[in-house]
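Progress narrative, Year 2. Work on C2H2-type domain-containing protein from invertebrate metagenome advanced from sequence curation to structure prediction during this period.
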Amino acid sequence: MELPNAQALSDHKKKAHTGKQICPDCQRELPNAKALSSHKSYYHTGKQICPDCQRELPNAKALSSHKRYYHHTGKQTCPDCQKELTNASTLSSHKSQYHTGKQICPDCQKEWPNAQALSDHKRKAHTGKQICPVCQKEWPNAKALSSHKSNYHTGKQTCPVCQMELPNAQALSDHKKKAHTGKQICPDCQRELPNAKALSSHKSYYHTGKKTRPDYQEQLQNAQALSSHKYRHHRKRKIDD
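Result:
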């Protein structure tokens, strides 16, 4: 290596050709005095405060890395999805979560689009059995418990259409599906019913096929006819005192 003068040569030899050096602070072996000096200036400087965010770092090396990741890169654009991230660190984290390629769950072999999706799946589906803290019902995993709680332990809900109060979100959902679906046409007799609930009730009464009277096996046209017959002919009559 060519140096500009004798002093530079002397300094170079002192730093680069001194033989292996042991760091007195961590006992790490370095190849020469120059490497030892650099090592000490990075790792054994004591705690450092970031001038930009006041975060405390353990040494100068950590501070340098921190500043490079969080304060000196500016906004970064993901080359895969064009999403803008605040700095290099968040870009790196984003890529390691969302642009890893497909991932296979080791527990159930289900395929997921990326590492983040796999992580979310494992956290919800492979947590083991969970007990609902409200009703003590047991569920197979955290996902099932979360769904149960969001359906049944939401507190009372008011239907926005008819203002009817229901005990929970599931009851509200069922109510809306049955009562606020709009007019329905019976596929068997073409009769128009006001909603899905009325249609279901209509079909269970009138389109069930013939029913047999249990007392002497007379056949009635349908469930409604059987119900009416039993009410008229076989109900208990009050005995006059």
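The chain has a mean pLDDT of 81. The longest strand covers residues 21-22.
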